[in-house]
Design a protein that fits this description.
Layout lengths: L10 H21 L2 H12 L4 E5 L1 H16 L4 E3 L2 H4 L12 E5 L6 H13 L2 E6 L5 H5 L2 E4 L15 H20 L4 H7 L3 H7 L14 E3 L4 H11 L3 E5 L5 E6 H10 L8 H4 L6 E3 L4 H11 L3 E5 L5 E6 H5 L5
Parallel strand pairs: 1-2, 1-3, 3-4, 4-5, 6-7, 9-10
Antiparallel strand pairs: 7-8, 10-11
Length: about 325
């Protein structure tokens, strides 16, 4: 280590590191074959959990791969191979699937774990730089993750190899996501917090339903309409028929106009004062989309309809304010 006051940062080396790692990932795409497809099918048919394991730097990559599977609809967790053979093995069941990472394919702690996994009967996917290693040969499916050289100037520190393993894990998770039909709304359900969860939040998680849903019938008298709007405190009520199909809506503005136009509101019905072409959205609408509609149309409420066209909820602008989408 130099103690000189003038230390030059080698940008050429930094660029070389990025170049080596990007080429290592690119090379993986040319090696994907039927073994990758078989690995995805094994994951898709797994009735238990996906367990990802590895030692050292491979263990760190394993944790991230497990987290990616979990966040995209596949139950997964990391197990430390050394700790597994000292008591944590009970967490692994015969219907689980093990993804084992080891660049050399000869990590002793991992090989001891595999012996026990084989006795349990769980399936094994190996991610290794040496398919002919003990790990590669003992797995049900082996994925070749070799790199020509590490990005480390000494060719010692795991760099390109761990980047390649991480990318291959992502490829497995994303292909499995598509294979299982994982959707945006599924992702939102698993990410309720943070900006990502807000962006994917659906209106059916925010709307007023059941006893909090303001509805009246077409024949409901004016006084009862007024009572419903006041009680629900949304500034409006839906007008529905007996089958819960939407006929129209009545807002505070409609009520005021009815009072100004009629000398006697006692005999007025909901049908007589409602607006018959209200803004509606399906319950699968994303909250961000609903916010755009409310702002562009300059309204404060949207009626939410089921696939069959019946009223299932009302979304108010205040409900979106609480999500801090603004």
């Amino acid at each position: 280590m130099t103690h000189s006051k003038e230390v030059k940062i080698d940008l050429a080396l930094a660029k070389r590191v990025l170049d080596i790692e990007s080429k290592a990932v690119e090379a993986l795409s040319h090696r994907l074959d039927e073994f990758f497809i078989e690995a995805v099918e094994l994951l898709a048919s797994c009735s238990g959990r996906v367990i990802v394991t590895g030692m050292g730097k491979s263990g760190i990559i394993s944790r991230k791969i497990a987290a990616t599977f979990s966040s995209t609809g596949t139950a997964a967790y990391f197990v430390h191979p050394a700790e597994a053979v000292h008591g944590d093995l009970g967490a692994i069941r015969p219907d689980d699937l093990l993804i084992a990472l080891s660049y050399s394919g000869e990590t002793p702690e991992l090989l001891r774990l595999l012996e026990t996994i084989r006795r349990l009967g769980a399936k094994i996917i190996a991610i290794t730089g040496n398919p002919n290693s003990p790990l590669g040969l003992s797995a049900d499916v082996t994925l070749d993750c070799r790199v020509d050289n590490e990005a480390c100037p000494l060719n010692l520190a795991p760099t390109a190899s761990t980047t390649a393993a991480l990318a291959l894990g992502d490829a497995l998770a994303m292909t499995l996501l598509k294979r299982k039909g994982f959707r945006e709304e599924d992702f939102a359900n698993l990410h309720p917090g943070g900006n990502l969860g807000k962006r994917l939040l659906r209106v059916d998680r925010l709307m007023h339903t059941g006893p909090k849903l303001p509805t009246v019938q077409a024949t409901t008298k004016f006084s009862d309409v007024l009572s419903t709007i006041s009680k629900m405190q949304l500034g409006m009520t839906c007008v529905t028929n007996e089958s819960e199909k939407l006929l129209g809506v009545i807002t505070d503005g409609d009520v005021r106009r009815a009072i100004l136009k009629s000398e006697n509101t006692k005999d007025l019905t909901a049908e007589a004062i409602m607006s018959s072409n209200p803004m509606t959205v399906p319950e699968s609408t994303l909250a961000a989309q609903a916010l755009h509609i409310l702002e562009s149309k300059r309204v404060t409420s949207l009626v939410v309809l089921s696939e069959a066209g019946s009223v299932v909820g009302v979304l108010h602008l205040h409900d979106l304010w609480r999500t801090e989408l603004f």
